[in-house]
Specification:
75% helix; 0% strand; elongated
Length: 147
């Protein structure tokens, strides 16, 4: 479900939470999820959190996702100040972070594959050297025994 910022601003945070939870429960049933979370459905809760509109909630969710992905990627929470940013600006920043994270993951996988290949080559070389040494030892023993 994609709503514009204008549509989100017209909803209360609780109304938007109910919409998101309804969508989550629908997908969970369709896809046989065994565990999933939902948002609090309590207007007082959202008011205490100073999250009043659906847009406030969407921004809060986007910032939470950004913070979690950033920490997973960099090992610490972001220091960026998002005060005054629009949902669209935050989502663009999140898209950039996802792309950066994907590129980093791909680079790490490539490094791991190169390392595995180096280990294979080193093990093959060691085996070859070991077998050559064993062959030389057997030849010397055969020669010593008169063969």
């Amino acid at each position: 479900m994609t709503l514009t910022s204008t549509e989100l601003a017209a909803l209360t945070a609780n109304e938007y939470a109910v919409l998101l939870n309804t969508e989550t429960r629908r997908r969970a049933a369709e896809e046989n999820w065994t565990g999933f979370g939902t948002l609090v459905e309590c207007a007082d809760f959202w008011a205490r959190c100073e999250v009043h509109t659906g847009l406030d909630l969407a921004i809060s969710n986007a910032l939470g996702t950004y913070s979690d992905v950033y920490k997973e990627t960099h090992g610490f929470r972001p220091r960026k100040n998002f005060t005054g940013w629009t949902l669209e600006e935050i989502e663009a920043e999140l898209t950039s972070l996802f792309e950066y994270t994907r590129l980093e993951r791909d680079a790490e996988e490539a490094r791991e594959m190169r390392a595995e290949k180096l280990v294979e080559v080193a093990e093959a070389h060691l085996m070859e050297v070991t077998l050559e040494g064993e062959a030389e030892r057997c030849e010397a023993m055969a020669e010593a025994l008169g063969y």
